[in-house]
Amino acid sequence: MKFSNRLIFFIIFVLAATLTAAYFFPVQGSSVTLSAYIASICGNGTQELTEQCDGSDLNGQTCAGLGYDSGALSCGANCAFNASACAAAPAPSGGGGGGGGSGVIYTPPATGVTLQGKAYPNAPLTVLKDGQVAAITKADSFGDFKIQLTTITAGAYTFGIWAEDKDGVKSVTFSFTVTVIAGTVTTISGIFIPPTINLSQQNVSRGEILDIYGQTAPQSSVDVHIYSDEIVKKAEADKNGSWNYSLNTTDLNEGAHTTKAKSDSNGLISTFSQTLSFYIGRGIPGAICQWANLNGDGRVNLVDFSILLYWWGRANDCADQNKNGVVDLADFSVMMYYWTG
Amino acid sequence: MRKTKLQFKISFSIFLGIVFFFPFKAEAAKLYLAPVEREYYVGNTVIAEVRLDVKDECVNAVKADLSFSKDNLEAVDFSRGNSILSIWVKEPVIEQDLGQISFIGGIPGGFCGVMPGDPGESNLLGRIIFQVRQAISGQGKIGFSDTSEVLLNDGLGTKAELKTSGAAFNILDEIPYQFKDQWADELTQDSILPEPFEIKIYQESLIFEGKYFITFSTTDKQTGLDYYEVAELNLFERIFKIEKWQKGNSPYLLNDQNLRSLIKVKAVDKAGNERMATIMPVFKPKWQDVIWILLFLIGLGIIFRLIKWRK
C-alpha cells in the first residue's frame, strides 16, 4: 500500500472513529438515572446553569439589572459577571463643587440569606427555596448548621430545610416564609429541625413491646405522643442524638394508632415529626405510594407533581393519597406536606 | 402547641429577636383583598392584592375562586410576582365574560403566617390588575366564591376553616387629574430576569404512556412569571441556529422521544424578561443505532476501496 493510500485510510479511520465515539459518547451532559443535564463549560460562549455568564453571553443581564445606573457589563474569565465598568449615578454635587463624578465604581451590597440552627450530628441537610433544592450541606458533629445562600434576588421566599438521620430516614420539612430585602443579608437563626421517627414494626400483638425511635439534636428531651387517646411519653436523646422509647402495648386497645414526636433542646422546641401509624391486633394492608412519593424514588418533587397533575380529576390508586376516589386538592396538599424538592 | 423560637436578623447585626409560635390548634385561614381604595375613577388601574392570613396553623394549598363586577371592571392581568405560591396546579385564569378569576397553588413545606419582624408582608398570593370601565352601577365589587378552599399542612389534606373578605368601592365618572398607571410603570421598571431554573428529563410508567417528558419550574419576584416556551432543536436546527419556540408548561411531553435534540426552555415574565435553561439529553444507543454506525463504516470502507481502485 502506497503512503498516500495509507494516509487516506488513516484519516478516514480517525474520522469514522471520532464520529462513532461522538455519536455514542457525546461530550455534553452526564447521566443521572433517568434525568440528564448539560455540564457547564466555562469558555464555550454559552451561559449554562452554574455560570453567571460566558463570553458575550450575559444571559440578558445588564449593569442596570445588577443595581447600577450605567455602564457596560462584561464577563470574567471565571464566567462570573465583571461589573467593573458599571457605574452608579454621580453623587449629587454640593453647590457645584463636586465634579469628577463620572467613572465612580459602585459595588452594591450583597443580598443573601443565612440560616442557622440545629439538626442531628453530621446529618445531610437539604435546603429548599420556593420548593426547589437550593443547597445540600451537612450539620456538624453537634448537629449545628449554618447555611449561607448568596446570588438571591430580593423578594418573598419560602425556605424549607429537611434532614436525613443516620438510618436514612427523612425529617419533616421545616419551612418559613420571609421577604429578602435587596442589599441586606437576612439571618434566620433558632431553626430546629423536627426529630425523625421510626417504628420497630407496624403490626404488633397486644402486650408486645413496640420500639419508637429516631434521631434529634444531642441530649434533647423527646416527647412521644401516642394516639388515639393521647398519651405523652418521654425519651432522652443520647450524645449522638439517637432516642428510643419502648412502648408496652398492654395498655392500648386493639386497632389503629398513630404516633409522632417533638424535641426540646435547652428550651428550643421543635415542631412535630411525621405521624406514623401502627396497628395492634390484626394486620393492616401496606399503603400504596406512601407519603406522596408517587414514582417510588424516595423524593417528592416535580416528577411526583407531574404524575399528580396527569391524574388530576380522575381516579388513580397511587396519586389519590386520601383515597376519596379522585385526585384533587387534598392529594395536592398531602404532596406539599411531604415535599423534598 | 407547636412552638419554635426563631431569631431574625437583618444584616449588620440589627437584632430583632422574635419568638415564633406555630400552635397546632385549627383556627381559621383568611383570604382577603388589599389594599383597595373607597373610590376610583373611570380609566383608573386597580391593583387588588390577593393575600392569605393564617392564625395558629400552617396551610399548604390554596384554591381561590374570585368573582368581580364584569360591567365596571376589566381584569387585564394577573401578576404572580412575589407570590408565596411556588407550585401551581392551575395557573390564574381570567374569564372576563363571566367575571371570574381562579387559580390553585401550593407552598411546599407549608405557610405558617407572616413571621414577626419580617421586613415585608410575605403573604401575597397574587395581584389582579383591573381597569375601571364605564360606571354603569357606580360600584365595583371583587369577592371570593364559596368554592375557595385552603388546606392545612398536616399531611392529611384537611380543609382549614376559611374566612374571606372581598372589596367594594365607588366608581366616579369625572377624572380630576392625570393619574399614573402603576402596573404600566412596574412593567417598564422590571429589568430583572426570572429566577434561574433547570430542566430535568424523566420517563415514568404512570404518565404519558411511559414516554419521555421534562419538568421545570421557576418564579419571578417582580412582575411575575407570564409563560414558558419550549424548543427542541435537532442537529440541523442547532447548526443553522433555527429555533422554533412553542408555549408549554411542566410537565412537557417531548416531541423527540429519541432524545437527540437540544432542549431549551424560556421563562418569560410579564415585563418580557427571559430566563433560559438548556439541556442536552444523554444519548443512550439502541441496537438499531449500532446497525447504522456499521453501515456508515462499511460505506466509508467502500469509498476508500473505490478511491484506491481508481488510482
SSE map:
The complex is a heterodimer of chains A (341) and B (311).
Chain A: H1 3-24, E1 30-32, E2 35-37, E3 70-71, E4 74-75, E5 81-82, E6 86-87, E7 112-118, E8 124-129, E9 132-138, E10 144-149, E11 155-163, E12 174-180, E13 185-192, E14 198-199, E15 203-204, E16 209-215, E17 221-227, E18 231-236, E19 242-248, E20 255-265, E21 268-269, E22 276-280, H2 302-310, H3 329-338
Parallel strand pairs in A: 7-13, 15-22
Antiparallel strand pairs in A: 1-2, 3-6, 4-5, 7-10, 8-9, 8-11, 11-12, 14-16, 16-19, 17-18, 17-20, 20-21, 20-22
Chain B: E1 3-4, E2 7-10, E3 14-15, E4 20-21, E5 29-34, E6 39-41, E7 45-54, E8 59-68, E9 73-79, E10 87-95, E11 100-111, E12 124-132, E13 139-144, E14 149-152, E15 162-165, E16 167-172, H1 182-189, E17 200-203, E18 212-215, E19 225-233, H2 235-239, E20 246-247, E21 252-253, E22 262-269, E23 274-279, H3 287-310
Parallel strand pairs in B: 5-15, 6-16
Antiparallel strand pairs in B: 1-4, 2-3, 5-7, 7-12, 8-11, 8-13, 8-14, 9-12, 10-11, 13-16, 17-18, 18-21, 19-20, 19-22, 22-23
GO biological process, one term (chain A): polysaccharide catabolic process
InterPro entries (chain A): Big_6, Dockerin_dom_sf, EF_Hand_1_Ca_BS, Ig-like_fold
Pfam family, one (chain A): Big_6
